[in-house]
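TICKET: design request
STATUS: open
ATTACHED STRUCTURE:
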């Protein structure tokens, strides 16, 4: 089974950057996260945060929505434009509207203030676990032929067979299938597939993956309504059977 490359870090402890304008709140969060084994850097304004993000190895950012020198939205946009580091927003509004707006700008998750430390820790750990299995980029296969069960893929000629039957594929369908088969047995998120096939990971484009998966299933599954090859991993994405 193919495995993902592991990210290289300067230390085994994940490095978190807390960007929080409230100094007291920042100190509390930093204290508790350090006590849980995280290496923590802090910034009380956006400018300092960007300097740290550009100069240090950061595994995840916790970002307050209100900073003294810029909005959290602006800071999130700059961070996302320069890096794929996971960003968790510390949202202010009780209905989470600011957190949801931040997701549209490229943030990965949000928690509501006042922050519940147990929830924050659970979300941070879950996001870091996901990051450890995600490649920076899903790369196209270089093999002469890829075989998964009775499915054979020839990357150079871009031909696909199931058994003796050749299956016609559009360009993106082929690219998507090739990545699924290369990482067969692994649960791939929609964001990962978007980056690997379309070179983007905007939340609004997620539907594109679902549509192409449906098209692939109609071509390679015996029963597209009950797929055995390309299965859905609930809450995550898709997996090609190993």
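STATUS: resolved
RESOLUTION: sequence designed for all positions
ATTACHED SEQUENCE:
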């Amino acid at each position: 089974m193919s495995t993902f490359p592991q990210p290289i870090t300067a230390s085994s402890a994940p490095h978190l950057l807390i960007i929080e304008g409230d100094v007291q709140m920042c100190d509390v969060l930093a204290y508790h996260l350090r006590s849980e084994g995280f290496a923590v850097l802090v910034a009380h304004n956006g400018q300092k945060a960007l300097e740290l993000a550009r100069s240090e190895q950061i595994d995840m950012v916790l970002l307050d929505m209100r900073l003294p020198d810029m909005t959290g939205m602006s800071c999130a946009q700059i961070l996302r434009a320069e890096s794929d580091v996971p960003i968790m927003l510390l949202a202010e509004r009780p209905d989470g509207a600011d957190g949801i707006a931040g997701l549209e700008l490229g943030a990965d998750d949000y928690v509501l203030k006042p922050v519940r430390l147990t929830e924050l820790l659970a979300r941070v750990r879950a996001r870091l676990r996901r990051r450890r299995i995600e490649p920076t980029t899903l790369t196209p296969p270089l093999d002469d032929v890829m075989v998964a069960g009775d499915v054979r893929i020839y990357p150079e000629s871009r031909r696909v067979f199931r058994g003796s039957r050749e299956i016609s594929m559009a360009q993106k369908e082929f690219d998507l299938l090739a990545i699924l088969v290369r990482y067969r047995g692994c649960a791939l998120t929609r964001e990962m597939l978007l980056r690997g096939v379309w070179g983007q990971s905007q939340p609004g484009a997620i539907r594109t993956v679902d549509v192409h998966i449906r098209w692939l299933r109609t071509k390679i599954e015996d029963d597209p309504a009950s797929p055995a090859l390309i299965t859905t991993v609930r809450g995550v994405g898709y997996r090609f059977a190993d």
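CLOSING REMARK: The first strand starts at residue 15 and ends at 19. The CA atoms of residues 94 and 112 lie 7 Å apart.
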